[in-house]
Design brief:
Blueprint lengths: L8 E7 L16 E2 L2 E2 H10 L6 E6 L4 H7 L9 E2 L4 H12 L6 E6 L7 H11 L6 E7 L4 E4 L5 E5 L5 E10 H14 L1 H5 L4 H7 L4 E5 L10 H12 L2 E15 L3 E4 L2 E4 L3 E2 L7 H13 L5 H4 L13 H13 L3 E10 L9 H12 L6 E6 L5 H4 L3 E13 L5
Parallel strand pairs: 1-4, 1-6, 4-5, 7-11, 16-17
Antiparallel strand pairs: 2-3, 6-10, 7-10, 8-9, 12-15, 12-18, 13-14, 16-18
Length: 401
């Protein structure tokens, strides 16, 4: 494709490793980081990026339950099972993406959860330049390098000019990196194991790979100290934000209503352009309010036929992704559903579980309450349902300009 055209791009998140050096009972990509799995942080960074069309995760076969819990609520394809080496895992992921017509693929380590949107964008743009086969995020070395001998004595000073620390994402023209990985795999596992990143695979094919300045924050979690550092990066300096949401939908034809993504039997349905989930709409507006991102109608206008009948969990996930792009996370959601009928109580716990799953947060961060208006007003007359919500998030402090 011409370098000036907008390329179709997929992201491949490599999460099949074991990460023994972190010293935890779980693989490091499934450890909690500010209340969210390390893997989820990495996946959301790419899933929320406007230039990424598809995110494919590669995991170890034994980790499927951990993967499902970590990424609950995200709209992703089923994970691909990796191989015995990183190179084989990447190849398996690339093979799964083959045939979808992607021009570029961004390959990223799940153990780098703090990747930012700007670094992703810079790397994508560099890989799409004319005369380039790929690009990788990297940092130029600043420290003086020493080569040691067997006695741990200094043997020589190594010139640092032109040396970089490789990071991910590493972005390549899809067909070329797939061909390079297939060629390396054909050589056998010994050769494949020696290649520690995808740029090294590209080098074996003689490809031109550009260096793009990455970010210090985009470090790889290898030890428990790295995990603690990532916690500090996420936790400060932070500020707490709150937002409110309110929504109303009238009853219409039907035999059930959808509340919090849960179908509830009733004598009527709810009228609306989407699935009319009044509860998720209120929660969506509350989350948008925490970061000053407008309201649900701005993001999903009812005049747009794309949203006709769509499930409202997409709206709530979009709002949460916007918070995540700001480096924030959801602390608490407090929802009140207002109606005479149907009764919410029997379905309350399912609703809490569904909301927590959509957002990937602990269930004790979600409150669902119900009340009536004592037969007063439109809800009291049984004409519809209202919902009001309060959202609390923490986001990084931004300097005033």
């Amino acid at each position: 494709m011409p370098p000036s055209a907008v390329p179709r791009t997929a992201a491949l998140i490599v999460a099949a490793g074991r990460g023994h050096r972190v010293g935890a009972p779980l693989p490091k990509q499934y450890l909690g980081l500010s209340g969210v799995a390390v893997l989820r942080h990495a996946v959301q960074a790419f899933a929320s990026h406007p230039r990424i069309e598809r995110v494919q995760v590669v995991i170890a076969a034994a980790d499927r339950p951990l993967h499902d819990a970590a990424l609950s609520g995200l709209d992703l394809p089923a994970p691909i099972i990796g191989g015995a080496t990183r190179q084989r895992s990447v190849l398996n992921g690339l093979e799964a993406l083959d045939g979808y017509g992607f021009d570029l693929v961004a390959i990223h380590d799940a153990a780098r959860p703090l990747i930012d949107a700007d670094t992703i964008t810079r790397t994508l743009e560099a890989a799409n330049r004319e005369g380039v086969d790929g690009a990788l995020a990297a940092l130029p070395l600043a420290d003086t390098l020493k080569r040691g001998n067997a006695d741990t004595m200094v043997a020589a000073t190594v010139p640092r000019q032109g040396l970089w620390r490789a990071q991910t994402p590493q972005v390549f023209r899809f067909e070329r990196i797939l061909a390079a990985h297939r060629a390396v795999a054909a050589l056998g596992d010994d050769e494949a194991t020696a290649l520690t990143d995808d740029a090294a695979v590209a080098e074996t094919a003689g490809y031109r790979v550009a260096l793009v300045e990455g970010a210090e924050r985009n470090f790889k979690i290898t030890t428990s100290a790295d995990l603690a550092r990532a916690e500090r990066e996420l936790d400060g300096p932070m500020e707490t934000r709150t937002g409110t949401g309110f929504d109303v939908h009238a009853f219409g034809p039907g035999d059930s209503v959808t509340l919090c993504g849960v179908p509830v039997p009733h004598s009527h349905g709810l009228a609306g352009h989407s699935d009319a989930d009044v509860a998720l709409h209120a929660l969506t507006d509350a989350l948008l309010g925490t970061i000053g991102a407008g309201d649900i109608g701005q993001h999903f206008p009812p005049s747009d036929p794309r949203w006709r009948g769509v499930s409202s969990d997409r709206f709530l996930r979009h709002a949460a992704d916007l918070v995540a792009r700001r480096g924030g996370r959801v602390v608490n959601l407090d929802l009140t559903i207002i109606c005479e009928r149907p009764k919410v109580g029997p379905h309350r716990e399912r609703m809490r579980v569904r909301i927590a799953g959509i957002l990937g947060i602990a269930i004790d961060r979600v409150a669902v309450k119900a009340t009536t208006t004592e037969k007063l007003g439109f809800t009291g007359r049984g004409e519809g349902i209202a919902a009001q919500a309060l959202a609390t998030v923490v986001v990084p402090v931004q300097e005033q300009t």
